[in-house]
Amino acid sequence: MSFQHRIEQGLAERRAADAYRRRAVSQSGSGREISLNGQRYLNFSSNDYLGLSRDPTVIRAWQSGAERYGVGSAGSGHVTGFTTAHAELEQQLADWLGYPRALLFISGYAANQAVIAALMQNNDRILADKFSHASLIEASMHSPATLRRFQHNQPTSLDKLLQAEHSGQTLAITEGVFSMDGDSAPLAALHHACQQAGAWLMVDDAHGIGVNGSQGRGTCAAQKVKPELLVITFGKAFGLSGAAVLCSESVAEYFIQFARHLIYSTSMPPAQACALSAALQRVIAGDDLRQQLQQNITQFRNGLAGSGLQLMNSQSAIQPVLVGENQAAIDLARHLSEQGIWTSAIRPPTVPPDTARLRITLSAVHHEQDINHLLEVLNAVTATQGE
């Protein structure tokens, strides 16, 4: 089979399964509203949970940073790309989250890949939650370690795997808030099982940091858990992009020596680090935003109670509406778009077969009338289906 034939076959299979992905071009960025293909919609697909991507203080910090440092870092952090802006942000993050060190990465995907690739060796094993993010699973599969997956959010399933004899080191992996279901991991029980077995726990809290816990310190802080490795990302509640790994002093130095994603990637622009420092201060002082977000979540869930739509067990900003069939999810998303609402139809392989869904995400910047309009459209759909 030639490359071209392989490509055409793969594309045809995706189309036949109603799983073909398409990108929409935004003319406005992603805020409370979004402009796509010349149309304006209420935006219920953004991960900007606190609305900080458009925060004036954060924007000014980026502009000021660009004036001081320029628009790019012009090198790896191991060459010339590590500035005072990066160093200050790393220290601020470490102090905020109570870890000796924080290391910045260009993305959450890169951070997860880097940690697993640098740490794991032959005879080691990785025990990952079945619903862990693709970046975690891919890195685990490509590492020399053995990968086993425990049942989603089931500490007893993890404990059973931990009890099996093993000669190397064990790294357990989970997420604070799961990106497709919106539920939270039982971190205390998972960490206890790891400690009893002499294993380390790695938590990717991309969707919990900034939203959960005191001062937005995240899901781990909210559950009073301090994993050996904590990954946070800035593309959600911080409203920007990039990531950081929180860890001990020696582990940070080890990553500086051996994490290839850190060594060989151009570091984030210093201006971005300046903006992230400003976003961090807004997150820390953001009880008003977190309270508004929680009110919006409650309004949405209460508004669909008894509607016949299948909401998943999520108290987070991620509110999946389970549909089942791929085409049905596509049709529902299209219907909402016709009513001025933009949502994402998530289909396999991103989620398990027969669990296609609308992934509705709420933000602190949504107005009460925005959510009421969404509820009216969704409730009208179920009323029509019941006739």
Automatic annotation (TrEMBL):
Protein keywords: Biotin biosynthesis, Pyridoxal phosphate, Transferase
Catalytic activity, EC: 2.3.1.47
InterPro entries registered for this protein in UniProt: Aminotrans_II_pyridoxalP_BS, Aminotransferase_I/II_large, AON_synthase_class-II, AONS_Archaea/Proteobacteria, AONS_Proteobacteria, PyrdxlP-dep_Trfase, PyrdxlP-dep_Trfase_major, PyrdxlP-dep_Trfase_small
Pathway connected to this protein: Cofactor biosynthesis; biotin biosynthesis
One GO BP: biotin biosynthetic process
Binding-site positions, substrate: R21, H133, T350
GO molecular function annotations of the record: 8-amino-7-oxononanoate synthase activity; pyridoxal phosphate binding
Keyword Transferase part of the UniProt annotation: yes
Cofactor: pyridoxal 5'-phosphate
CDD domains: KBL_like
Keyword Transferase appears in the UniProt entry: yes
Domain Aminotransferase class I/classII large intervals: 41-378
The protein's role, per its UniProt record: Catalyzes the decarboxylative condensation of pimeloyl-[acyl-carrier protein] and L-alanine to produce 8-amino-7-oxononanoate (AON), [acyl-carrier protein], and carbon dioxide.
This protein's name: 8-amino-7-oxononanoate synthase
Species annotation: Pragia fontium DSM 5563 = ATCC 49100
